[in-house]
Task: inverse folding
């Protein structure tokens, strides 16, 4: 039952971030001194994940960039720093090189647009597992990572078809997210995407890009099952799983923040810096000047 594999998706053109994303993948934009993608990898590593596949945008340099970041040993940089008496500065690079196995693939360009297609592209990597983890690299978790929470929840509910992370959100933002409807037993019924009014939201629980899925999801996550706007949606497949059995809703024990657009990225970056760096007080004092 050990969950050892994870898929991290970054398959999209991130048009809201242009022009920078015409050259680098969005998940390589930094949060503090690390790219978003590395923080997702670290969340997996902390939960005991041993193999990770990153799904990159097809027909771009994304795969090459991820491969270089996670696998290039940068011996020239290491030698230079050693010669300058600054060998300790290479330690963060070595930490990246020491991560568990990371494989980078491109999304299958023949699949429909949609957040389910990167998962389908990695099917052969996980289809023989009892279960596997999926992370959307738009989403970051501060504090205890959701991957660990998802695995712990599955260990307590081994017959579950899936486990999805959830967080309570204030009413004023319900219209921006997928809101969770629960069955009487507390498991997932379905998800209402971006309810137009608060009355249409079935709860205050938001679903986002942290899932534990069983291979059964691939019965429903197929190109023929496109939904809204002709896209292949992971949530649609998870709803089908919920019709066939229990999909457990696990409340996040951390704090979910999104980097999906420049405004939210800036706020996520600021919150991360204020929570995780030794220069947080200096940044806080700097920001307070503009009150």
Result:
């Amino acid at each position: 039952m050990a969950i050892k594999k994870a898929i991290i998706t970054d398959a999209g053109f991130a048009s809201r971030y242009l022009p920078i994303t015409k050259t680098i993948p969005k998940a390589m934009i930094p949060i503090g001194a690390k790219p978003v993608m590395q923080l997702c990898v670290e969340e997996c590593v902390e939960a005991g994940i041993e193999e990770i596949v990153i799904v990159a945008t097809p027909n771009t340099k994304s795969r090459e960039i991820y491969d270089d970041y996670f696998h290039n040993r940068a011996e020239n940089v290491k030698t230079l720093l050693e010669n300058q008496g600054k060998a300790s500065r290479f330690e963060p690079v070595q930490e990246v090189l020491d991560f568990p196995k990371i494989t980078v693939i491109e999304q299958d360009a023949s699949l429909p647009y949609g957040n389910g297609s990167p998962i389908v592209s990695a099917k052969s990597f996980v289809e023989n597992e009892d279960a596997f983890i999926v992370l959307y690299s738009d989403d970051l978790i501060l504090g205890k990572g959701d991957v660990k929470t998802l695995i712990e929840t599955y260990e307590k509910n081994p017959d579950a078809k899936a486990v999805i992370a959830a967080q309570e959100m204030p009413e004023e933002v319900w219209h921006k997210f997928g809101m969770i409807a629960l069955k009487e037993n507390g498991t997932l019924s379905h998800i209402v995407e971006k309810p137009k009014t608060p009355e249409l939201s079935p709860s205050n629980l938001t679903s986002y890009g942290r899932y534990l899925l069983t291979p059964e999801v691939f019965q429903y996550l197929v190109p023929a099952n496109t939904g809204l706007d002709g896209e292949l949606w992971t949530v649609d497949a998870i709803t089908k799983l919920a019709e066939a059995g229990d999909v457990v809703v696990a409340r996040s024990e951390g704090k979910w923040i999104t980097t999906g657009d420049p405004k939210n990225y800036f706020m996520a970056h600021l919150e991360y810096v204020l929570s995780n760096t030794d220069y947080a007080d200096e940044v806080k004092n700097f920001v307070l000047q503009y009150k």
